[in-house]
Amino acid sequence: MSTVNKKITLITPPYERIAKGYEFVKHITNKTPTLGLLHLAAEVRNHGYQPSIIESDIFDMTVEDVVAQVVADTPAYVGITLFTVGVWCGAEIARKIRIALPGTIIIVGGPHISSMAVETMERFREFDIAVLGEGEEILVNLLNTLETGGDLKQVSGLVFMEKGYSTSKVVKTPSHSIDRNMDRLPMPAWDLLPDFPNAYRPAIYDFPGGPVACIAASRGCPFHCKFCDTSTFGAAVRAYSAERVFEILQHLQSNYGIRHVLFVDDLFTASRKRTTELCERIINSGMKITWSCASRVDVVKPDLLHLMKKAGCWEISFGLESGSDELLKKMDKAAAVDKSREALDWTAKAGIRSKGLFMLGYPGETEETIATTKAFVKSVPLTIMNLTKFTPYPGSPIYRDLYGTNIRDDHWQKMNGMNFLWAPEGMTIDQLNSHYKNVLISFYSQAKIPWHYTKLTLQHPSHLFRLLRFFWVMSKTKLGQLLGRKDAPVQYAKIELD
Prior knowledge:
Oligomer: single chain
Radius of gyration: 23 Å
CATH class of the largest domain: Alpha Beta
CATH superfamily of the largest domain: Aldolase class I
Shape: globular
Number of helices: 16
Number of domains: 2
Helix content: 25-40%
CATH topology of the largest domain: TIM Barrel
């Protein structure tokens, strides 16, 4: 019997999304698993490796908790997925693992690595090897090469530091060619998640009722908005066949009792034909399921929306960004405000809830454009909106426009959409924060909003239980702060609703 260690632990590192003293917010925020790790785990398992997954944020694990679990498992390999905001935390985990398990090879990937691998590997020597882009095939090739003592330079899609006698240099291998056939991928490894699906819930009111699972039915986006980092999946859209998506839905329902699915594709409706076929399969089968997806206002039509509703579509997220046509043009958004208004009206008439995704503080933002957006969101059929604080993510065209090729260490830890890192000409960050709060208050103070959420709560009591727990923990926290820290500075936290 072989005693070769083929264990690989895949980690989503903890990172600070909520200000200290406001941890109670976690009871209503998003806690869905990292789909990329589920795909990687399934792929390496098919090739003889023994994966495990650590979802630190979902289980409120500290860096020390993560390291302790890794040390207890003694894997030969550790894979860490990195968003920009989590790089420093990921490096701390890697550093502690290296001390405790010096023979373990630490591999990193994820959106930040796909856009800034060379700079990250040069700065953080705690990481051994970086995997670029879609990692399933690359990771298997890498592990097989490491197992056989092969040459890493022969593996495409990698970045690593080659150590010489006196210096080290960064090596970047050729890009990995993408296999467009997504049906080849094994079923995501939901079975490796502890207490799935019960412990994994989207933000409160972001779904009608659970249990819930996430699926990426496609990868890539053909559009080129300047604020988007598309370095992981690129512009070429690849998708599961409608038949394969339906098989995954059946698997989730029969094995885990899933009642709602979040399609996390950048553009779920990229193919009208595939969307139509999937909807027809769901309808003809009699499957009882609801689902949410993301689309664009310039690719939906009334007939398709009505078909989607009949197939169980509950919510569509639209990247509306702004109520100003002038600002949309600066973002390289293809659709105008009138098109947004039309699509939202069509969606409402189809009986599907629209979620408006907006951004505040983009270059060119002014008092006038903010006022226009504030008025727009109240004039359209929306009952939920997500207002992001403009963040120039590495890999996006706007990042290069603002900073050139310079890497700003002081910004990486703040790149979570909760901080204004930059202010447009003529405005300050303090002013932006004030406008941010005013836009949200103006929208959510409309009379129709509380009525919508009251109905949703009555229809699906699980939301009420989360809400009550949120208020109970918040009350205890606030009371403790008043009794024990009367002179403590006030901190403000954004409550993430998606």
